[in-house]
Specification:
The protein is an alpha/beta fold. It is built from 11 helices and 6 strands.
Length: 265
């Protein structure tokens, strides 16, 4: 072996050791993040809800909202067409979280409006949390348009995109964009992400999309939400914005508290 080869070998070992050190540090950071986050969060002051039973709430930050509980259903007889609360209560786990989560997974239901500035911030925090959790968190996104005609169009478009398997991409683009959700813009957005624009516009006004909006509206009525954003993290209800540290610490608290009664029946 030449002198130059002998000189390079220790250098290679040091380089591999450095890479392993970075990888270990990354894994350690992922594992430690929930514990670090809790250092910056005081103990939660939970208040039990009278209805629905088994849930609790904590105080939160700012919200955007409209007073009408049927705003956004885009139908003159929305109240008559609204889904009865009894039907939703019969399987609240499915209506709220899309079904029972796997063991060890904390479900989160997020209620938002694309014209709500606080929703944009909270959606980004939730998306980051879901990506970092490694499957330990499952988010159900609820479209709850409260802030006018463009909110309704955007919500219907996102649900229509879901019928083509493109909800996540559509949702993120609408949340991060600053364009009004006109039919022209929605067609352009559909083309950009590879979905059928004509079908999207047609599905937007279909019964399936209306049914999902009404289900979300019924769930919101049950929990007494008055604006967006609103969250249900496991058994904990939050109306308004909260920091990422609070969300992470709350997820860990929910994990310690165990499975949800409404999803264990």
């Amino acid at each position: 072996m030449s002198e130059s080869e002998g000189a390079e070998k220790p250098h290679g070992l040091h380089r591999r050791a450095a890479l392993l050190g970075v990888a270990a540090a990354s894994v350690g950071a992922w594992w430690a993040w929930p514990r670090v986050a809790q250092l910056f969060v005081e103990d939660f002051d939970f208040e039990p809800l009278d209805d629905p039973q088994g849930f609790r709430r904590i105080a939160a930050g700012e919200t955007s909202g409209m007073p009408s509980p049927f705003f956004g259903l885009d139908a003159p007889d929305a109240q008559e067409q609204a889904i009865p609360e009894e039907a939703v209560r019969a399987d609240l786990c499915t209506s709220l979280f899309g079904g029972s989560p796997p063991a060890g997974v904390v479900p989160i239901a997020s209620f938002s409006d694309y014209n709500c500035p606080f929703c944009r911030v909270l959606t980004e925090r939730l998306s980051n949390l879901e990506e970092r959790s490694g499957g330990g968190v499952r988010i159900t996104w609820h479209e709850w348009p409260r802030l006018g005609a463009t909110s309704i169009s955007a919500a219907r478009a996102a649900l229509a995109a879901d019928m083509q398997g493109a909800y996540a991409t559509f949702h993120k683009r609408l949340m991060r964009g600053r364009f009004v959700a006109t039919p022209e813009y929605l067609e352009i957005l559909a083309r950009d992400i590879g979905v059928d624009g004509d079908r999207l516009l047609s599905d937007m006004e279909g019964d399936a999309v209306s049914e999902r909006l009404r289900t979300t509206e019924a769930v919101a009525r049950i929990f007494g939400f008055i604006g967006t954003p609103a969250l249900v993290v496991g058994r904990t209800v939050i109306v308004g914005t909260v920091s990422e540290n609070v969300i992470v610490a709350l997820v860990e608290q929910e994990r310690r508290d165990g499975p949800l009664p409404i999803c264990s029946a």
